[in-house]
Structure formats: C-alpha cells, structure tokens
Specification:
Helix content: 40-55%
Largest sheet: 3 strands, antiparallel
Number of helices: 2
Distance between the termini: 34 Å
Radius of gyration: 11 Å
Strand order of the largest sheet: 1-3-2
Shape: globular
Structural class: alpha+beta
Length: 63
C-alpha cells in the first residue's frame, strides 16, 4: 500500500467519523494517520484497541 492510498483511506475514515459512524483500522500507519486527522479536525472520539487493530468511535455525548 502506498502513502497516497493510506491518506485516501484516512480521509474516508475521517469523513465517516464526522458523519457519526465508527471506523476500524488494522495498519499501525493508518491508525497513526487517523489519530492525527482526529486531532487536526478536533473530533471527540473514543479509541478501543484490539489485538488486530483499533476502533474509532464518535463520542455521542459530545455532539
């Protein structure tokens, strides 16, 4: 997977988070990019780490 592919995937997952949908990522690099995107967009999101990856769940209480 190229860096451009990861950035496109990050952008799609950030868009889904903004719509209130939970997203999942397996790759360590994609998780890092999503975390940076969340900080940049100032989104309130819960993280749940699993053995295989990480769930990003919008915090509904903050909406």
């Amino acid at each position: 997977m190229t860096v451009l592919d990861l950035r496109e995937m990050r952008d799609e997952k950030i868009r889904q988070l903004k719509e209130g949908r939970s997203v999942y990522a397996e790759s360590g690099e994609l998780i890092r990019l999503i975390k940076r995107g969340i900080e940049k967009e100032k989104l309130v999101v819960k993280l749940e780490k699993t053995d295989g990856g990480c769930w990003f769940i919008p915090d509904e209480k903050e909406e």
